Amino acid sequence: MRRALAPALLLAATACGGGAPAAYAPSPGSEGPAVAPRASATASPAAPRDLDVADPALRDELLAMLAADQAELGVGVPDGARLPYPQDTSRERRLGAVLDAHGWPTVDLVGAQAATGAWVVAQHADDDLALQQRAVALMRPAVAAGQADPVELAYLEDRVAVNTGQPQVHGTQVRCRGGVPSPATPLADTAGVDDRRAALGLAPLAAYYGELAPSCAQEALDGADVTPG
């Protein structure tokens, strides 16, 4: 499902306490959406480029991929304008080639915003689970080295869990069911999830679900009680 997002409404960057990754704003009703939904990198096309990077050409390419992803969702596209044809598959192939050549594109290699671009492509690659799993494996040592965003990793780990029918660790993937937000798959450790979220700067699940409740209720009224995002 491809749905345009409302970047400023909920969780723009780290606003509203829900704690999305920097420059990543899930739609109202999703904190890192589940299954086939999308994410919006609010700062993406207009953000200043990181200038002191090892590979400026790759930085620019990843930023362009991020901008294309967002344009296909209608971010920055005038109301009523036709959206670009989705090119997810080509971006996924290119990200795979980037991983072959460089491993995970780190902050030193391409800058934080372009690294987020790589993550958005992986996060949206629900038709390529192997790519998502590979991205998780490469992001983990990059996070440990301070070269990737730990919140983005948490979102992608949960995304892979949902796409494989496994419990989530941080509860970032949410669906609206019956007009009420709930985890897309069960949590691995309900008692400890808020501690794990707090360690990443994410708000408790109850607070987050409280923010999402109105949009889930509206989706139910609109007959669109589906996975947010």
Structure overview:
The protein has 229 residues and is mainly alpha-helical. Helices cover 45% and strands 3% of the residues. The chain has 8 helices and 2 strands. It is globular and about 45 Å long. Residues 1-20 and 22-46 have low confidence and may be disordered.
* Unreliable sequence segments: 1-20, 22-46
Mean pLDDT: 80
End-to-end distance: 8 Å
Give a count of the beta strands, DSSP E runs of length 2 or more. Answer: 2
Described by the principal axes of the CA atoms, the overall outline is globular
Measured on Cα atoms, how large is the radius of gyration? 16 Å
Helix content: 40-55%
Largest β-sheet summary:
2 strands, antiparallel
Alpha plus pi helix count = 8
User: How many domain units?
Assistant: 1
Percentage beta strand: under 5%
The strands making up the biggest β-sheet line up spatially as: 1-2
Instruction: Give the H and E element order.
Output: HHHHHHEEHH
Structural class: mainly alpha
Outline of the structure:
This protein has helices at about 55-70, 90-100, 105-110, 110-125, 130-145, 150-165, 195-200, 205-220; strands spanning about 175, 180-185.
Keywords:
mainly alpha, globular
Give the topology:
Layout: H1 56-72, H2 88-102, H3 107-110, H4 112-123, H5 129-144, H6 150-163, E1 174-177, E2 180-183, H7 193-199, H8 205-221
Antiparallel strand pairs: 1-2
Helix pairs in contact: 1-4, 4-6, 5-6
